[in-house]
């Protein structure tokens, strides 16, 4: 029987009390069974494994890379986000029933104690066809306006117009509970018309579309036409502000005007709620 000669080279470099005759394929150090990591050829020691992992390129999740690619390419990410949240809320509504609708819908007397309803109501819908039509409108007009205005201006237009729709409901029909993105969508239509006219377009088609949809709201029961009126008026005003403050030197005037308009609408909604409660 033959024995291998005893040597420090025959002991694990990390555990000197453990004899081994296995060498790391990369650095040649002796490693025991605990310290071995199987490689394509032979084994590697912990240090070589750590070094190899550190040298590997970091691959980000596909969802992250796709999202950043969409943002950098100018895709209407804000529009897609609005649609995604709306669909998600609608799906939750189907599971949880009317409880979600009651918690998120706009009801004027509750605005003072629950002001977030001015925003959440835009993501709540009453039926499949309700959300289908609204999301189609958001996709068509939102995509165009987001590319024209930029994401921040587009989002300001969408949400301020949506708030305006709720404020109109609180002023004209305070006992009505309202849901849906119609006020915001009519704001997109109003702004789109003003922008088209300001850029030399006729805007007749969009004007006819607005008129037809307003008429449907007046004659079809169950539709909060007040939100349509409030949204389209404020949307047109915002479109006018954007067109009159297009120069870079007027950015702060534009920001102040839109912020002031939004704040004014919120104050009106809160005051109206206090009146209804008093």
Please give a structural write-up:
The chain has 278 residues and is mostly helical. It has eleven helices and four strands; from the N terminus they run ββααααβαααβαααα. The protein has helices at residues 46-55, 62-73, 77-96, 98-104, 117-120, 128-149, 151-172, 182-198, 204-219, 225-244, 251-277; strands at 37-38, 43-44, 106-107, 177-178. The protein has a two-stranded antiparallel ribbon with strand order 1-2. Keywords: Hydrolase, Membrane, Protease, Transmembrane, Transmembrane helix. It is a multi-pass membrane protein. One of its GO terms (molecular function) is peptidase activity. It comes from Frondihabitans peucedani.
Fourth CATH level, the homologous superfamily of the largest domain? Rhomboid-like
Number of domains: 2
* Mean pLDDT, all residues: 86
Terminal residue distance: 103 Å
Proportion in β-strands? under 5%
Question: What is Rg?
Answer: 31 Å
- The CATH topology assignment of the largest domain is Rhomboid-like fold
CATH architecture of the largest domain: Up-down Bundle
Could you estimate the helical fraction of the residues in percent? Answer: 55-70%
What is the overall shape? elongated
Number of helices: 11
Domain Peptidase S54 rhomboid: 114-244
Keywords: Hydrolase, Membrane, Protease, Transmembrane, Transmembrane helix
Protein name: Rhomboid family intramembrane serine protease
Pfam families: Rhomboid (PF01694)
